[in-house]
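Anyone up for a design puzzle?
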């Protein structure tokens, strides 16, 4: 079986892209097609998503949900991770070096933040990193 493509998405594209990724992983003949996948355990909006290994990490929410939703591409299943330290929306995220990094976003409504956080999936913990510079 081929390794699934590492697609990143945010907002309302998340469920569709996870369906596409799962179709790619499930069958090489399904390349370029869309498939239904298991529904997320909670609704989210204005999120950021990062891929690490065979998992996609959904972080943030316009409605202040802080719990991480984790989608396992190989098993079409969801789990929950340790909550983000505070409500955030419109952040950016990337998986790199075994960690998920979350950059900026908006807090307390529409107040921009330059915070950088790292999530360690192995330890299920968050660590605050050096703030990004503002220009």
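Challenge accepted. My sequence:
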């Amino acid at each position: 079986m081929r390794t699934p493509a590492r697609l990143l998405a945010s907002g309302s594209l998340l469920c569709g892209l996870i369906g596409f990724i799962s179709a790619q992983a499930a069958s090489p003949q399904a390349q370029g097609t869309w498939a239904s996948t298991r529904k997320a355990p909670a609704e989210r909006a204005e999120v950021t998503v990062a891929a690490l290994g065979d998992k996609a990490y959904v972080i943030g929410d316009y409605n202040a949900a802080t719990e991480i939703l984790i989608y396992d591409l190989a098993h079409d299943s969801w789990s929950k991770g340790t909550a983000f330290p505070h409500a955030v929306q419109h952040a950016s995220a990337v998986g790199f070096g075994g960690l998920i990094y979350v950059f900026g976003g908006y807090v307390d409504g529409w107040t921009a933040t330059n915070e950088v956080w790292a999530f360690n999936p192995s330890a299920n913990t968050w660590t605050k990193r050096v703030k990004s510079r503002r220009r």
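A detail worth pointing out: The domain at 13-129 is CATH 2.120.10.80 (Neuraminidase).
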